[in-house]
Amino acid sequence: MTERPESLSIAPEHSANPELLPIRDVVRLTGVNPVTLRAWERRYGLIQPLRTEGGHRLYSLDDVATIRDISSWTERGVAVSKVGTLLERSRPTQNDSSLRVADTSVSVVDFSEASEWLEWQRSIRQALAAFDEDGLEQLYGQIFSTYPTSQVFGQVLLPLWHELRHQTGFGQLSQWLFYDAFLRARVLQRLQFVRRGARQCVLLAALPDQCRELELLVTGLLLSGDHGAIRVLPLGQPLAEMPLLCQAIQPRALVFFAPAPPSPPLLGQLNKLALAIDCPMALAGRGAELVAAKLKDTPVANLGDEPRLMLSRLMQFLAGHLDT
């Protein structure tokens, strides 16, 4: 069934709040199709959009953030029926909400910014449809000159990357491959520039089967900050051979990117690995936050999942001021 465009006329009780998005814009921002959005609402109760007088759905920016979280979990193999529990565990409690807001203010957005991000994505789509690398390069530079790195990837580039990855129309896979290769090349370039001349580095690796290369590279860029030196290991790096790499490279620390919570057996492997290498070890990403309680009293530190928080904790960790 084709989704009918939804009206922007808002019921009187919601007219005072302009920070509401119709479903077509939510689809563009998240890459999740309307049928799936309705299923997450009706069948699982994961999102609760408001309605216009005509019954059309209107989504808040919090809804958009939740939809992205749900999409992230399901892409990593978590059953939709279990996502609700993960969402509950990942939401800040009253005790830590003020700390999270203070440390992650870069992710707090308003409606005007969301509209601007949609416009950037429309322009990128046009460049991708024409396979216009020069035009894409120009847009890429303009976006970076406008927003912080975390917003460039978190609100503009990666949401579109996720959206195109799930498109099945003729030519859309070619567009996604073109876009993916472009972004990986640019992020690698930035990582190499930041690391240039550094005597020591932090190794960043992915946990098995949890992410794609671009997601790992972007995490490395976010952890680099303005002066960090992050060396990203290839996907598929065997955990059993990590002591060999650490002995040869002598990194300042070994960090694993965990976008989903590691299983108990994998956590056990990581604890053993931390005792087998000569450098400190940590987890970063949403999965690290969700197993934070299990990491206490272990040799593995938790760097969190928000960009500014991850970078701040990494600096503390390297200075020996972050409790594991």
UniProtKB/TrEMBL annotation:
Database matches in Gene3D superfamilies: 1.10.1660.10
What's the superkingdom here? Answer: Bacteria
For this protein, the record's SUPFAM superfamilies field holds: Putative DNA-binding domain (SSF46955)
Residue ranges of the HTH merR-type domain? Answer: 20-89
Which keywords does UniProt give here? DNA-binding, Transcription, Transcription regulation
InterPro entries named in the record:
DNA-bd_dom_put_sf, MerR-type_HTH_dom, MerR_fam
- Fetch the SMART domains from UniProt: HTH_MERR
PANTHER family tied to this protein: HTH-TYPE TRANSCRIPTIONAL REGULATOR MLRA-RELATED (PTHR30204:SF67), REDOX-CYCLING DRUG-SENSING TRANSCRIPTIONAL ACTIVATOR SOXR (PTHR30204)
Return the protein name. MerR family transcriptional regulator
